[in-house]
Structure of Glycosyltransferase:
Amino acid sequence: MKIIQITAAYKPAYIYGGPTMSVAKLCESLGSWKDEETGSSDVRKCDRWIEKLTLKVFTTTANGKNELEVEPNQTKIVDGVEVSYFSRITKDHTHFSPALLYNLFKVLRQAQHDKIGIIIHIHAWWNLVSVLSCAVAFWHKIPVVLSPRGMLTTYTQTNRNSLAKNLIHKIIGKRLLNYCHIHATSEKEKYDILTLVNPKSIVVIPNLVQLNDHHVTNKEQQSINNENTAIPFKIIFLSRIEEKKGLELLFDALSILNFDFILTIAGSGNKDYIQSLKTRATHLKLADKISWLGQVKNDDKFNLLSKNDIMVLTSYNENFANVVIESLSVGTAVILSNQVGLANYVTENNLGWITKLDVHSVADKLNLSYQDNQKRNKIRKLAASLIFKDFNDKILAQKYIKLYTDILNG
């Protein structure tokens, strides 16, 4: 079985945040999976595919407005994964790469000639890498798994370049999407997808998330808010800074709180948009309560998350949200909007608070989290073990392998 993972951006393009990291983690786990001895019986029945499992990544040199410092149109090994980086002609958010499409065409034609079981797994939608790669696979009658990663919702269709998206969807997109086997990362994303398209099949498998086995030390525990109200309540937002994250809503809610707090904002985004947020914070008299850290290294974010009382994500749309798992893995409770894919998981396991997309609802949940020190301490003690169990790399990798083999077996 040959799996070609196609993504417009791959690490070290960390500027794109969680989706890029999840794709890389999936590829690394699949690359090492066949060497493990823990395969489920359902998967082991398909050994005829797995014995010759090969994995390749086709991506571009995309790194925001710039390009990665890699040799274009070449292949290199990145953390055990064979990755081919192809130059692109257009920048964000189209990523048009003729070299990638030409090489994909050659690989598919050769696979057909050799009668090799092959699957194309495409990550994200609404860019020319994804849409045209899907068209190439459709032309060759090669099965496609599509992970939209939040790109197939009514919100994303109307939020940016909506006219172009609707035009592409009507001309070619809908037909291609109906050809795909779709992978959703949460039940919410599955629901959103099925309101727009009718795929061949759809399955829910959570993201693989890079976790750091971080244990909170006594010294760190002392820095975490307790019943001593002289210590400011420590709130953190850690994500890519863009309109859909609901930071304006969060700022408005913070402006009506009656307790002392510090908000740390970690992440990068459009400079003009970030400046507009800073202006809003000044008007709301929040400027001296907000610390802007910019992009944080992956190795540092777990320590940063562990030093805060609560992680807040009031997004208008979020198919999964890796940062939720990252925060809980170090014991920091979360406040999420009800439009975040992991909201149900947090509710079912009592790992935080869920808010509506309303200023007073967000403020109310911030007040509850501040007051309920007992619940926050319980989450700090118990969340990590639950996260490492529920989001185990090997178990999740088996689910992806089963998805691929089920498709090849018809």
Remarks:
- The two ends are 14 Å apart (CA to CA).
